Amino acid sequence: MKTADRMQGVHRSYIREILKVTARPEIISFAGGLPHPDSFPADRVAAAAAKVFAEEGASALQYSTTEGYAPLRKWIADRYARQGLTVSPDDILITTGSQQALDMAGRALLNRGDAVAIERPGYLGAIQCFSMYGADFKPVNLLATGVDTDMLDDVLERTGAKVFYAVPNFQNPSGISYDASTRHRVAELMARHECMLVEDNPYGELRFLGEDVPPVRCHMQTPSILLGSFSKMVAPGMRLGWIYAPDGLMDSLVRAKQASDLHTATLTQSILYRYLVDNDVDAHIASIRDRYKRHRDIMVASIRDHFPEEVATTEPEGGMFLWCTLPDSVSAEEVFKEAIRNNVAFVPGKPFYVDGTDNTFRLNFSNASPEKIEEGIARLGKCLRHCLS
Ligand code: PMP
Known about the structure:
Blueprint: H1 14-22, E1 28-29, H2 42-56, H3 70-81, E2 92-95, H4 97-109, E3 115-120, H5 124-132, E4 136-143, E5 146-147, H6 149-159, E6 163-166, H7 180-192, E7 196-200, E8 225-229, E9 241-244, H8 247-261, H9 266-278, H10 281-306, E10 312-313, E11 321-325, H11 332-341, E12 344-345, E13 347-348, E14 360-364, H12 370-388
Parallel strand pairs: 1-12, 3-4, 3-6, 6-7, 7-8
Antiparallel strand pairs: 2-9, 4-5, 8-9, 10-11, 11-14, 13-14
Helix pairs in contact: 2-9, 4-5, 4-8, 6-7, 10-12, 11-12
4'-deoxy-4'-aminopyridoxal-5'-phosphate (PMP) binds near residues 97, 99, 125, 231 and 236.
């Protein structure tokens, strides 16, 4: 079948392909980016749904506005005030997960061939999505303190990139967060180079160590986009996220979304809003943080016990992932094959790079039980020793 040119450079999500292999019950998987299912408030969402049907009836099943359910947009705007950001509900567009927000941003901003600065490694879903619009990626290294701002300065200067896509909190895949001075510097560089920051923040609420750091948006003198999601604080299956965008861009985003799906499901927006106002969401998020901290501590301790010293790992202060770097000569894809033979799985780092680097891999710590984490890391330690010997 002769498909459109735009599909040529777009690969199937490598992770979704890997998940087919790792679904076998005997495999301990650190591959998916899945929240822990016990963190989904199923009973409370069911109660919220019953209330929506009792109180709103058929109107919860009707078409609605593209911008999204007004009370939900206000709830999001009010929550930003806690981070020191003054946001009008009019600047919020509800999307079908923040993945759709990325798609809307790509459609509204990118022409084929436009340079897009992206973290190296970068979020696979953004690479896939912006590829669809012909992005010419310009990778910028991540350091332990966040993006390498000297390199970013240089890349923006040389390429005139129109957009910088960043995940400053507990990045997927690396788990790295930007420190305060990196955030200031990024804001300054965006202004100096007239570059649009697309700041993606699905994990910001999941800090379990250290102090909260305000979004880069708080330091920006120029317009920028901020994306958010309910996937990690409530449940990903509801597919609810949002995009906060400056005045001049909102109309294009709304038109892009209309062309795509008219609006996000009326029903799930109403149910989620009911859930948010009828429950103590902060207590719920605190329980998720506690759980993930426990998982992360067990994974870090097990790695120290079992991994060879030559394997470097990040020790994140939040989120769901940590990131391992092998000696240059070792291929993570080879380690992956050995791991699958030993019934343990992770995601090799290659698809997170636009330049083919192959000596890194991602481990998810939110989904497996503490017992499975210990057992899985011990198995992986054996595989690493085998591959590094
Ligand atoms: N951005 C990043 C950095 C992510 O890790 C994810 C989830 N894997 C998304 C966006 C998309 O999340 P959702 O569509 O569920 O909000």
